Amino acid sequence: MANNTKIILGIDPGTIIMGYGLIAVTGKQAVIIEMDVLKMNPKKDHYERLQLIHHRMNELIHQHKPACCAIEAPFFGKNVQSMLKLGRAQGVAIATAMQAGLTVAEYSPKKVKQSITGNGNANKEQVWQMLQRILRFDEQPEYLDATDALAVAVCHHFQESNPLAGISKSKGWEKFLQQHPERVCKP
To answer: pTM for the full model?
Structure first.
């Protein structure tokens, strides 16, 4: 990889299936490095699965040397126990990335879908199909958790390459008006 290439690790946290995807970004061009899942035995103890997440995250970080990690925020479900377990899985992934010195960004599922497809209510298949166009790959993964993770990485790339990303609409307008006082109508 070229020296000006930035690698982004995307994570779709899960306690049974954790998706991960890595992209390399040079300038504004992103290419896929890898996407896959860590599939864990649901009969294993929850703490053992958390240890597997930690171990796989360490492997990915040491193998690919990403600059940052983007992770999907958990959605709010009705099952409190499932949400607690998912939060723990996400926490392990975040702590592992931070321990390795990576910056971490978190995106809601709706934000990721909006960023990739233009529709915050897109389904997994629509996200996968759009990623195929954006990153130019033909592979169809066995689990769409892998493409969800890839989508989080691409979403992060889009957010970083957008100069207005992270600026609220009001601050964006305030800044615009400060830079262009001649555009303000006086009463």
So the answer is: 0.84
